[in-house]
Amino acid sequence: MATPTKEESVSFAPPDPLVPAQYFETFRSRGKLEPEKRLLLAILEDAIFCFFKYARSRSRHGQRLFRDAEQWIFSQNKEWSCSFENVCLALDIDPEYVRRGLMAAKQKMSARPVDSAPRLVGRRARKKLRFAA
Questions:
Q1: What is the SS3 assignment for 44?
Q2: What global pTM score does this model have?
Q3: CB-based contacts of 81: which residues, under 8 Å, 6+ apart?
Q4: Of 98, 107, 100, 123, nearest to 44 (Cα)?
Q5: d(CA 48, CA 102)
Q6: Between the CA of residue 133 and those of 118, 119, 120, 122, 126, what are the distances in Å?
Q7: C-alpha span between 53 and 62 (Å, rounded)
Q8: 3-state DSSP call for residue 80?
Q9: pLDDT by residue (tens digit) across 114-132?
Q10: CA 80 to chain CA mean position, Å
Q11: Which end of the chain is more exposed for a tag (fewer CB within 10 A), N or C?
């Protein structure tokens, strides 16, 4: 019996969930990036941050930020130098892998009731909560 080739091998394990901060930390720990790559990484981080932060926003501003990030991420444009495809390729990231992860996260977020979404609490609000307890 021949061993399966890369194309024939099947994996039954689901992909590991990875928080964006953990993913981007791998780039920071590699040492210094060239300024151009740091800029591209900042663009990608901001888009993913907006995607998660505003995915369930009720405000028009938040919905617009989410829609803009989502359109940029899922665009197949390769002509623009700062397109999602080109940014990912410049950073040696598989764009389809990122898209699949974001779609899975979006589906999980939409399955949860809005009230159960984690809330971001500012430093001042945490101080007030600490003193109230």
A1: helix
A2: 0.60
A3: none
A4: 98
A5: 8
A6: 20, 19, 19, 17, 11
A7: 8
A8: coil
A9: 554 455 555 555 444 444 4
A10: 20
A11: N
